[in-house]
Amino acid sequence: MTLEILFAGFGGQGILFSGKLLAYKALLEDRQVSWLPSYGPEMRGGTANCSVTISDTPIGSPIITKPDILIAMNLPSLDKYEDAVKPGGKIFIDSTLITRHVKRTDVEVYEIPATMLANEMGAPTLANMVMTGKLMSVVPEISRDFLEDALHKCVSARHQNLYDLNLKAMDIGAAYEC
Amino acid sequence: MAEKVLMKGNEAIAEAAIRSGCRHYFGYPITPQTELAAYMAKMMPKIGGTFLQAESEIAAINMVYGVAGTGKRVMTSSSSPGVSLKQEGISYIAGSDLPALIINVQRGGPGLGGIQPSQSDYFQATKGGGHGDYHLIVLAPASVQEMADLTALAFDLADKYRMPAMILADGTIGQMMEPVTLENIEYKPVEKPWAITGTEGKRKHNIINSLYLNPEMLEKKNLERFERYKTVEENEVRFESFMMDDAEIGLVAYGIAARVAKNAVTALRAEGIKAGLIRPVTLWPFPKKAVLEASDKVKAFVSVELSMGQMIEDIKLAENSKKPVVLCSRVGGMIPTPEQIIETVKNLEGGMD
Amino acid sequence: MAIVYEKPHALSDLELHYCPGCTHGIIHKLVAQAIDALDIEGITIGVAPVGCAVMAYDYFNCDMAEAAHGRAPAMATGIKRSLPDRIVFTYQGDGDLASIGMAETVHAATRGENITVIFVNNAIYGMTGGQMAPTSLPGQVTQTSPYGRDVKTAGYPVRVCEMLATLDGPEYIERVAVNSVKNINNAKRAIEKAFRNQVEGKGFSLIEVVSACPTNWGLSPQEALKWIDDKMIPYYPLGVYKDRTAAAAKEA
């Protein structure tokens, strides 16, 4: 099994964090994993993406050109990467921020109003976790095994109070019916 | 089994350096290696080490020169434009026969270039870089684990041969996270009777110096140094051979380019095309023998680089023009796709049939 | 028989290569006397510059290193950070310290590195044959200012002590000269103090020594000493520019 996942959105949306969570989970599952961020001069508000490869065999290139799964958190990301997704792959979009539909017909599409759901639960910065929750609920290769340990590793010591909120956001995402 | 942690390549270098006994770090901010300096800034004060943000790359490398003279393990890190600034100091360190570690997390050039990954400092790293006849031991990690392992090795080799060593990485390997284990790294201190530590009235004074105004003496020093380099070339070549046994097309690539090339080899094999990969781990000394031996078997070589054809020259020198060598590259911060490499190989095959 | 004068122990037996009338020899001796007086030869590490004093590493019996041009304060920083209990000094000329190495000088000073800097100002590049230095005087004729230093195109000389004294980092900044017995005795006191400051952990000390270069000034040794009084000292007044400890004592 090799799964190539591309998270993309604005800087500040927690794109790198979501990727890191999956990477840690894979590490705890004793799988091979690589996590590769885009990096640039912009810290907040610019485009950000992160490529996570999870595999049962050694990973060659960490660079993903044809993702199995795309999580697009804004329109520029969907515009940029929609065509790159492998036929039969999955595209997750934050439908609060992305007003158009996915054009591809050869992929499974999940439209989640993640930003709205996050706002409703009073944690507007956790739209990424809503998306990640949905992702885990529909991708059999990414179970919730080791999720809690991985989350502990990713949430810094001074933000441990957000731990429960992160889990809650994921539950809301998982429960959302597209 | 040793515990694995998820770390960025830049951080893995820093932690491996600390575990290798390095307690002195000097640097100047530059993308994409900043995590390394940040890690050192956080850790060094806790373990009684020195982290100093120097006024320039030039000052940083000369601080390294000073610590290296005292016999302690020391390092600096930067990215391409900053490493150019360090070249003067590196030449002095080489000319004074001192061990030290320089990290270059390469970005696109020339000039200010860009900040995305590149391998265009190959010539600078492997041919000397500064003025004068000298070499660095140049190690090219292709994974976060190798960022750690080769950092430890670089310190050991630098001490062993009394010469500066360089980790030639790139923005991708520096920024990416992979599981890494650091528990196998151990510090093996080496006696350094030549160091300037104060005579304490017990010995004649030691001098750290690269100046020899007498040309016979300077020639002798150079010849001695190159005798040492010969030993390094005989003993310290490291490379990985992937599917080369029956390969008809031999890809040669290092660092991130090798990771992409490996994907291409796997895909080509699936199509029945016999491709293989030689991945130099030491860029200096270059795995000349491995390339020469492969030249008896393969029809052609492909140099996969993030540069305009730099390593290709070493491949041609190594295989002595016995077989054609073609270039497959992207530059300026771009990275070749496996598809580009596959197409290059198929074009080669087509051209030969 | 009573010994009334001895070569300092910290100075090696090698014959100095300096020109007749050059005052580097005097300054070397003063540095060595300071090392002897404080009994620190065995724990002292010196850093030589690029310039006339490039071979100073052979002239001192303590451990020595040869820095790249202008980089002695950076190299000394590395040595001191590596061996904080050692006494580290640099010996630099005006081109080395105030031109190519200005950044290293200013930043070592502002960091308050606990090192001692001996700055020899003779207003010219000696080793390369008499080019204009950052400290060459307005109107001074040199190989690269053959019509005299024109401040409109070549700018003004740098007054290092005055400039560094504006920083909070340094402990001690003094300018002295070595063109008379009186001045040499004063220079001896200052240099010893600059080393003692380091022994006592007080921080960055710099002694600028106004020095003669008869060869490149085109003067006889005696004329050169007089030129220091007539031309150099009026532009570079002698004295203490910063003494943090003394200032604190006065405050109290």
How would you describe this structure in keywords?
heterotrimer, B: 353 residues, alpha/beta, Rossmann fold, 2 domains, 12 helices, 42% helix, globular, C: 252 residues, two-stranded antiparallel ribbon
Molecular shape of chain B:
globular
Structural class of chain B: alpha/beta
Biggest sheet of chain B: strands side by side, in what order? 3-2-4-5-7-6-13
Number of helices of chain B: 12
Uncertain segments of chain B? none
CATH fold group of the largest domain in chain B: Rossmann fold
Can you tell me the CATH superfamily of chain C? Thiamin diphosphate (ThDP)-binding fold, Pyr/PP domains
Average pLDDT, all residues of chain B: 96
Biggest interface in this structure?
B-C, 39 and 35 residues
Major sheet: arrangement of strands of chain C: 2-1-3-4-8-7-9
Report strand % of chain B: 15-25%
What characteristic shape of chain C results from the CA principal axes? globular
Number of strands of chain B: 15
The number of distinct structural domains of chain B comes to 2
Radius of gyration of chain C: 17 Å
Write a brief structural summary.
With 178 residues, chain A is of the alpha/beta class.
Fold topology:
The complex is a heterotrimer of chains A (178), B (353) and C (252).
Chain A: E1 2-10, H1 15-28, E2 32-37, E3 47-55, E4 69-72, H2 75-81, E5 90-94, E6 108-112, H3 114-120, H4 127-138, H5 147-154, H6 163-175
Chain B: E1 5-8, H1 9-19, E2 24-27, H2 34-43, E3 50-53, H3 57-69, E4 74-78, H4 80-95, E5 100-106, H5 122-126, E6 137-139, H6 144-161, E7 164-170, H7 171-175, E8 177-180, E9 207-208, H8 215-235, E10 239-242, E11 249-252, H9 255-270, E12 275-280, E13 282-284, H10 288-295, E14 300-305, H11 311-319, E15 325-329, H12 338-352
Helix pairs in contact in B: 1-2, 1-6, 3-4, 9-12, 10-11
Chain C: H1 24-38, E1 44-48, H2 56-59, E2 63-66, H3 72-82, E3 87-93, H4 94-100, H5 102-110, E4 116-121, E5 124-125, E6 131-132, H6 151-154, H7 160-164, E7 172-177, H8 181-199, E8 205-210, H9 214-217, H10 221-235, E9 239-243, H11 244-251
Parallel strand pairs in C: 1-2, 1-3, 3-4, 4-8, 7-8
Antiparallel strand pairs in C: 5-6, 7-9
